[in-house]
Amino acid sequence: IEKFKGIFPAFYACYDDKGEVSEERTKSLCEHLYQKEVKGLYVGGSSGECIYQNLAERKATLKYVADALKGKLTLIAHVGAPSTRESIILAKYAEELGYDSLSAIPPIYFQLPESSIYKYWSEIIDSTELPFIIYNIPQTTGYALSIKLFNQLIQNPKVIGVKNSSMPVMDIERFKKAGENRILVFNGPDEQYVAGRLIGADSGIGGTYGAMPELFLKAEEFVTTGNFDQARNIQTDINDIIIALCSLNGSMYAAIKEVLKLKGVNIGSVRGPLEPIYSDDFSKVEEISVLIDQT
Ligand code: NAY
Known about the structure:
alpha/beta, TIM Barrel, eight-stranded parallel β-sheet, 12 helices, 8 strands, globular
């Protein structure tokens, strides 16, 4: 379980200049994050633009990351897909590749009853021997994980954790209590990393960690060493950067990818309907990059 404690950047989709998934660029982002000494990666989630990629592309990304980092970092494969069938194909493939854990969002598009959501997650869990981390992200899926369903799911010993991206920090505390300390809780909202850790999260998985891993590693260190003033200060710096990343025309992930380019890691841009950064905003990207370096 110790291997799941720490900073887990949510891995970004890595495209070539034509917008195809790129092996070389995927591996360059792997190497970059490995050098930063993060604990592991969350591959193929929201930040991996999973819902905009087909099965072959998602499998390719899972493979490139495993090739580069298996045995070096803890690798979590996000396998949530529109159908149970596709999710299971990805789950089995991740197991074959040697991933350390699976994770999945609840079903998307149709608003299904909890019985269907339970069945969806359970069928994925039953399809492999791997541990499983529930992904609760109501703002994108429209479903907020209830304590009732959570309790039902954790009856299965393969369920080791929940990645909680809902905004109330209290949800982390509630899942932690319901899980009786056996279940790991991962903080989802990067803007509340410190608060999430203090209220009970064991770890963090986040979409902006990849742009500024050093800052989250420092925040984690301040939390574990009890330097709460410093932890709060670095959270404020992080939030200024996140707000700046979200203020550009185009998507946040596009802004992050431009920042990474300035750091020498070119992973292309985003896939539509996510928008790339507008050319007028490139000077702002440079300012954000400087801000990250100076923090
Ligand atoms: C994933 O699966 O890629 C993530 O972990 C991303 C979680 C992110 N939430 C959303 C709604 O995208 O990390 C957060 C988010 O990027 C961050 O808090 C900035 O808003």
